[in-house]
């Protein structure tokens, strides 16, 4: 009969509308209080409305969901606790299509020679288009796409340029939000450790921790609180800046331009404010 489908559809809508009130009585005021109730309401056996009461309730995102990137820090190896996995190679800044990654390479405070850790790392999350190229190309698994999508604020100039402190999250966080991918990566690396660690362990005749599902979280359970990430503040870093891996040739940060030419001269400290001013200027011109 013509229109039978419409009538059926309206009947389904009416049933859910009516059952929403039946549900309210059945849950006796606890409908929105328990995670189990939320799972039932989102499942096939639900009687009432499917509506998600955001922000009190949130749908789980799939493992491969990607929002803005974050930097992985060590939280397992006691000798490297809190250190960045990033070696400031600059590859992510080069491949980033909208050029929103800014890196300042770290250097040894005594010798002034470059060290494989970033002194500063910025991502302008307003410009980031969540493509995930940085994470795909990073040879050290040091930058990953986060699941945290609640980053809106009223101040795009300051709050949306994330520095190293805001970007850093422990490796166990990555394992918790993307267990399958983290395991695959660790198997490819040859162990749970950072690839540089695995290399030096091999040289010393030691075995890296074999990557299996069972030893993903040796020190604590998934449900335990994540450890505090130890991050060195960019402004307090005593080291001079050797070089900045700027995303584009014309966008070299102020720190590089200010570096003296003579190799024996004392180089100026990294100036975070000057760098931020440069990024803001670039942002204004986008
Ligand atoms: S590609 Fe990876 S290791 Fe290289 S600078 Fe980017 S995050 Fe750091
Ligand atoms: S996700 Fe894409 S746009 Fe965002 S920082 Fe990485 S490479 Fe750049």
How many strands, what sense, and barrel or not for the largest sheet?
A: 4 strands, antiparallel
The global form is extended
Could you estimate the helical fraction of the residues in percent? 25-40%
Q: Average pLDDT across residues?
A: 81
| Count of DSSP strands | 7
Strand content: 5-15%
Radius of gyration: 24 Å
Number of domains: 2
Runs in which pLDDT lies below 50 for 5 or more consecutive residues are 227-265
Strand order of the largest sheet: 5-3-2-7
Structural class: alpha+beta
The helix/strand series, from N terminus to C terminus, equals HHEHEEHEEHEHHHEHH
For the termini, the CA-CA separation is 58 Å
Helices, by number, come to 10
Which ligands, by name, code or SMILES, are bound?
iron/sulfur cluster
Q: Brief overview, please?
A:
This protein has 286 residues and is an alpha+beta fold.
Could you explain the architecture of this structure?
The structure is a single chain. The protein is α+β, with helices and mostly antiparallel strands. It has 2 domains: 1-60, no CATH class; 69-285, no CATH class. The chain contains 10 helices and 7 strands. The strands form 2 sheets. A 4-stranded antiparallel beta sheet has the order 5-3-2-7. It has a 3-stranded mixed beta sheet with strand order 4-1-6. A hairpin with a 6-residue loop joins strand 2 and strand 3. Helix 6 (171-177) packs across helix 7 (179-189). The protein is extended. The site of one iron/sulfur cluster has 12 residues, from helix 3. Residues 69, 96-98, 100-101, 123, 128-134 line the site of one iron/sulfur cluster.
């Amino acid at each position: 009969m013509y229109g039978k489908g419409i009538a059926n559809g309206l009947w389904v809508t009416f049933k859910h509308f009516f059952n929403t009130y039946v549900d309210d009585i059945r849950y006796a005021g606890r409908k929105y209080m328990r995670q189990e109730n939320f799972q039932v309401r989102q499942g096939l056996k639900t009687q009432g409305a499917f509506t998600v009461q955001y922000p009190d309730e949130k749908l789980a995102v799939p493992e491969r969901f990607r929002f803005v990137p974050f930097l992985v820090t060590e939280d397992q190896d006691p000798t490297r606790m809190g250190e960045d996995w990033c070696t400031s190679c600059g590859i992510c800044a080069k491949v980033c299509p909208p050029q929103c990654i800014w890196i300042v390479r770290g250097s040894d405070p005594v010798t002034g020679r470059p060290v494989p850790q970033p002194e500063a790392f910025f991502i302008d999350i307003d410009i980031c288009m969540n493509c995930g190229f940085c994470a795909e190309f990073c040879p050290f698994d040091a930058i990953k796409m986060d699941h945290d999508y609640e980053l809106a604020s009223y101040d795009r100039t300051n709050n949306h340029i994330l520095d190293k402190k805001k970007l850093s999250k422990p490796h166990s966080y990555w394992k918790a939000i993307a267990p399958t991918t983290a395991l695959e990566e660790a198997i490819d690396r040859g162990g749970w450790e950072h690839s540089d660690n695995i290399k030096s362990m091999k040289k010393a005749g030691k075995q890296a921790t074999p990557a299996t599902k069972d030893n993903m979280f040796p020190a604590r359970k998934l449900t335990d609180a994540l450890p505090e990430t130890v991050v060195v503040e960019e402004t307090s870093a005593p080291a001079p800046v050797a070089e900045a891996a700027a995303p584009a040739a014309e966008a070299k940060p102020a720190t590089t331009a200010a570096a003296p030419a003579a190799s024996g001269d004392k180089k100026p400290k990294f100036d975070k404010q000057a760098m931020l001013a440069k990024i803001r200027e670039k942002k204004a011109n986008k």
